[in-house]
Amino acid sequence: MAGGGPGAFIGPVHRMAAELDGKIRLVAGAFSRDPAKSAAAGRAWGLADDRAYPDVAAMIAAEAARPDGAELLAVVTPNHLHFEAAAAALKAGLHVMSDKPATLSLAEARELAGIVRGSGRLYGLTYVYTGYPMVREAREIVRRGDLGAVRKIVVEYSQGWLSEPIERSGNPQAAWRADPARAGAGGCIGDIGVHAFNIAEFVGGARVERLCADVAAVAPGRTLDDDCNVLLRFEGGARGVLIASQISAGARNGLRINVYGEKGGLGWSHERPNELTVDWLEGPSQTLHAGSPYLGAAARGATRLPTGHPEGFIEAFANLYGDFADAIAQGRANADMVPDINDGLRGMAFVETAVAASRDERGWVALEGEAACVR
Fold first, then answer.
1. Using an 8 Å Cβ cutoff, are 153 and 258 in contact?
2. Which class for 15: exposed (0-12), middle (13-18), buried (19 or more C-beta within 10 A)?
3. Integer CA distances (angstroms), 207 to 36, 45, 212, 343, 367, in order
4. Mutual orientation of helices 82-91 and 56-64 as an angle, nearest 10°?
5. pLDDT tens for each residue of 216-243
6. Which of 56, 144, 242, 305 has the least CB density, counted as fewest CB within 10 Å?
7. Which residues lie below 8 Å from residue 2, measured CB to CB, with a gap of 6+?
8. Whole-structure pTM value
9. Going from the N-terminus, what domains does the chain have, and what CATH number goes with each?
């Protein structure tokens, strides 16, 4: 693992998720750029002292020399360190699972795509919401054509934790997210907007072709955006609306998606993740439940417990890690349901295109970066 040291939020989540199903084990880490903190994290997680490293380069070199060396690097650092760690690992023959977004910039993402292509190794991104069973069921419903042709997709991801400028009062999670040098061109849009964008394409089954963005820094004195409203147009003609906000006071982690077709619509909310509602134009509404035998294979395969027993965020992360581990073990060229470098490229193209178009008040623009996708 690269990152995830004392005080980190997402590092422990990755560790718990990766190890949940017994397919992956944490054996080494460069958990902090402070060697003492890295060593402390290693001891806390039960690692041998010689496998908690002062930096990523030292870890990769030492692990490559061991007969039991690491095979997969989990990158859980702030955005500005993603490229360096992932590129070094891929060049050394390791597989990589990275927290989102893929890199600090679209230019870095394009360079990383070339490295992935030449490495022969797998690269995955933890757009974690694609790991929820009922999100995968929603995707299958759309793909089967049950709703008819998709006409509209509405996705919202609202939080309120940055309603005040807490980055100036010592909150480390807020501080790096509000810093362009560490977060990149986008603030809220790069932190949670990319999740909304990814799930819209994942469930809706079509890629965004054009967008019209209003991306703003609302909290006084903030440099990067904290509120985003984006109109979308998808391949095939569907319209869409994407809302991402971190200044919606009172909102906690309000991700929700609705997809509307000719025959009906479906809705999923992160606050009720084990349910999926389907509303028909000419029929009764349905509520589908995770763990039920009537669900499709993708949803059933992502569930560990019988219906009525709640599963959540850690388990969704674990589904991505489990799928990734299976692909490595089977020698496959991709990990099926796990977001990959193409999703990373699209995410970075979305962030930079929306930020620039909003800043320049350009109205509707094409989503750039399509040619970089690796197929």
1. yes
2. buried
3. 45, 41, 15, 11, 10
4. 20
5. 999 999 999 999 999 999 999 999 999 9
6. 144
7. 29, 30, 56, 59, 73, 74, 75, 76, 77, 81, 85, 89
8. 0.95
9. 10-128 (3.40.50.720), 132-306+341-359 (3.30.360.10)
